[in-house]
């Protein structure tokens, strides 16, 4: 692997992503999404994708553009409420969904990138998250085709009391896609405020991480204390510039 990880185009960066691949994708709503890379995957024509991301964009932006073209077979997400096509595909049995609590999803990605196979958490104990039965895929007639399985629950002495914890397995994926404000040629990345969100965690979980950055700088220009994601986790970088389109999911202005 060369130390200079910059490639010439998004098309080149995603060229080896095959149909049926699994992807971890950074972003929260439409904030910090790697839209140029998502569009390149759409243009490449691959399908049957299993995607891990907090949500699935909206109907015409973000991961929603892949969903609209039936390129996604399964989503692992914590929030799916802003995409009507997502709802339609899920309820009609066209799309599989693994619904995961948001903090648990973040930790599953971090664990995967850290070499931790599984961890215990209190989140979900006493619910279908732990007990199983959450619909993951429906039949066309509305009946449940696939439901989530029960997970191991164990009691631990914690904070002075016996408490129950559910075992959650880590997530790793074939590829990861993230957007960053700035990066150097070795792959060290800096994110912009809330646009960081799930991106470092998604990057860690992917065996091959592809980052789109607004600005590339020479090695040594980034303050090491300012680096949010070390280049060891990043395999390819494309430069998209600062004038790329960034949509706001819900624009709210003050009424005078």
Automatic annotation (TrEMBL):
Superkingdom, natural source: Bacteria
UniProt keyword list: Transferase
A single GO molecular function term of this UniProt record: CoA-transferase activity
Pfam family, one: CoA_trans
InterPro entries in the cross-refs: 3-oxoacid_CoA-transf_A (IPR012792), CoA_trans_fam_I (IPR004165), NagB/RpiA_transferase-like (IPR037171)
Keyword Cell cycle: no
SMART domains: CoA_trans
PANTHER family, alphabetized: ACETATE COA-TRANSFERASE SUBUNIT ALPHA (PTHR13707:SF60), KETOACID-COENZYME A TRANSFERASE (PTHR13707)
Designated name of the protein: CoA transferase subunit A
């Amino acid at each position: 692997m060369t130390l200079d990880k910059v490639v010439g185009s998004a098309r080149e960066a995603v060229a080896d992503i095959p149909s049926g691949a699994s992807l971890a994708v950074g972003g929260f709503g439409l904030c910090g999404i790697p839209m140029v890379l998502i569009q390149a995957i759409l243009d490449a024509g691959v399908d049957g994708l299993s995607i891990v991301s907090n949500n699935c964009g909206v109907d015409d932006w973000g991961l929603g553009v892949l969903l609209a073209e039936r390129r996604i077979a399964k989503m692992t997400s914590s929030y799916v409420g802003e995409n009507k096509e997502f709802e339609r595909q899920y309820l009609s049995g066209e799309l599989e969904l693994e619904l995961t609590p948001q903090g648990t999803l973040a930790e599953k990605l971090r664990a995967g990138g850290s070499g931790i196979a599984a961890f215990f958490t209190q989140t979900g104990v006493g619910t279908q998250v732990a007990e199983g039965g959450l619909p993951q895929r429906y039949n066309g007639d509305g009946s449940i085709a696939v439901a989530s399985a029960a997970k191991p629950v164990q009691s631990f002495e914690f904070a002075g009391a016996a408490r129950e914890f559910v075992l959650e397995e880590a997530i790793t994926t074939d590829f990861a896609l993230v957007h960053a404000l700035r990066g150097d040629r070795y792959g060290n990345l800096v994110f912009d405020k809330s646009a960081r969100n799930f991106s470092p965690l998604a990057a860690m979980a992917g065996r091959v991480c592809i980052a789109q950055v607004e600005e590339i700088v020479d090695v040594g220009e980034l303050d090491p204390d300012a680096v949010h994601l070390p280049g060891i986790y990043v395999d390819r970088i494309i430069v998209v510039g600062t004038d790329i389109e960034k949509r706001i999911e819900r624009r709210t202005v003050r009424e005078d």
